[in-house]
TrEMBL record:
This is Glyoxalase-like domain-containing protein. Coiled coil: none annotated. Residues 163-183 are annotated as: Disordered. SUPFAM superfamilies: Glyoxalase/Bleomycin resistance protein/Dihydroxybiphenyl dioxygenase. It comes from Saccharopolyspora karakumensis. Residues 6-108 form the Glyoxalase-like domain. InterPro entries: Glyas_Bleomycin-R_OHBP_Dase, Glyoxalase_6. Pfam families: Glyoxalase_6.
Amino acid sequence: MPLVVEFAAQEPEWLARWWAEVLGWTVVGEAEVRPDGPGVPLRFVPASEPKTRQNDVHLDLRSESHGDQTHLVERLFNHGARFADIGQSTEVPWVVMADVEGNELCVLEPRKVYAYTGPLAAVVVETTDPREQARAWAEELDYDIVAEHGEFASLRPPTGEGPYLEFLHNEEPHPGMLRPLSH
């Protein structure tokens, strides 16, 4: 069963076009963005209320080198993304940003583990029980559990291509507008 990541948006069609431009993907229908290669579709639906808190799901974008990471951060910034503070240490090697509607994302430093993911390295979910959530999603999606330790669990499509689905421990996940959905 495929994975779709859904964003609630104040302007779904506009946000879909923004993400399509940033990722180099294609808008399908009014407000869905799909990759031409590895990846998961992003769907944008009308929000019932404005975003006021940090999402419990965010996207990690892949970079191939430190120069590529810098270029991607600049590209996102020039497209309207802004730097975001979600309580991260100033010592982290990734850059935390928010898209034009405030949805958090990370631009990762180069990591070999994400070599075959396409531009989207991972869909990251904050939850009180990462291992339980990972097992449930692995069964639902027929994904492989590739890491499970402490406060982290990670899934991968059996093809070995496309983004990881990662679960991080958070005692108080923030209600967010970004949700992984199966269809």
